[in-house]
Fold Endoglucanase.
Amino acid sequence: MARKSPLFTAKSPAISPSFFAIFLMSLLSLTSPAVSGHDYADALHKSILFFEGQRSGKLPPDQRVRWRGDSALHDGATAGVDLTGGYYDAGDNVKFGFPMAFTATLLSWSVIDFGRSMGGEVRNAVRAVRWAAEYLLKATATPGVVYVQVGDPYSDHNCWERPEDMDTLRTVYKIDWSHPGSDVAGETAAALAAASIVFRSRDPAFSHLLLDRAVKVFEFADKHRGAYSASLSHAVCPFYCDVNGYQDELLWGAAWLHKASRRREYREYIVKNEVVLRAGETINEFGWDNKHAGINVLISKEVLMGKADDLRSFQNNADDFICSILPGISHPQVQYSPGGLIFKAGGSNMQHVTSLSFLLLAYSNYLSHSNHIVPCGDRSASPALLKRLAKRQVDYILGDNPMRMSYMVGYGERYPQRIHHRGSSLPSVRAHPAHIGCKAGSRYYLSPNPNPNVLVGAVVGGPNSSDSFPDSRPFFQESEPTTYINAPLVGLLGYFSAHP
């Protein structure tokens, strides 16, 4: 089961006089001795393949993860709608709309910014985007309604069973005008808008459909404001409860709609609502709940290119974000493990590693193209420095760490064998055609044996603050993979596969 990290409030970073020297020393010491080179192209291939292992619904003939089968083929039937498809968010069998939409947005952003570096793998990345986008179109097909979850999480988490065997409640949850959810609706609008850019030249008709739907969903999110965890607290909390508030998702949705449509109304919305929707808060947080750092980096591209001086405050916030996460700066919310991994309090730390590293790389590219650097007190950080830090985090994930373990399943000689994932840990339907009931799966959950099905490409929650990792299913915060860990990693690996 997935878990939320706590809310952080960022303050201005304190920079020591010896910042630059400390920073360089920190960058060089972010590790035990490195593994000799990484095959980023292979890691990219595997990171995308993971999403096929997370598919729900009727699997296509070209499905490559062959130990998976069709599942949840009647999702939505109890509400009279078709909600088949989409992704299971993690090691459970619930379809949570909030993290799924964020996953779609980051997969799209990965393709938009780094697709040209992905070689032949860009086709598979685009297929991963489409699988999510087609589901989000189903979830938003009824005007004024967004279906935000399929599956009762308490019923699901009380069982350990394959998605193909699911007999738990497939309850459908929705938001509407009387039960608002501007956070999940805003993120869904962002995902649809971002995906429309991916398909603009690849499939213009599909792209137009996505953008048109994004406009309608955003209008609904903005007109009927409220947090979905207030409307649906019994279903979404504590799993994907909106701790941060819905304001950032409205700005995030508007930013992606402006990028996708170039309509001035969305730029005016951003300028008008910057203060009201708290754009400058929690500058060093980015994930499925908190979009602030992502908003600032995304909008900064136009500012750096000299096209949006009225949005310069977003670039200032992006600069502050960069300064707050650099090694050598004292900041209470962003720490580094002794082995050099970005570490934030809360569960599934690797979600922070991949999403913040993605922003480092994206911002580095924006700075490079506009010939800018980031001022941090009396020092500065160059685009090359940001790339090196992002690459260092990727290398840690792939095996340059004190455990000498790759945290991507199936990559390298040593990787997690007992991940917290139902389908991976239970025998496949091909190997064991008979039904495995809710509680019958418990013996597989508690078994010390490796998972029988290798979920290639899955990146787990990762080691603790001391760089140690218990390769054990019950330690779900460390051993559970999620789609929103992998989504930004696709972009990172795409870039480094072409620029090692």
Q: What stands out?
A: Strands lie at 95-96, 145-150, 172-176, 335-336, 342-343, 374-376, 379-381. The two ends are 34 Å apart (CA to CA).
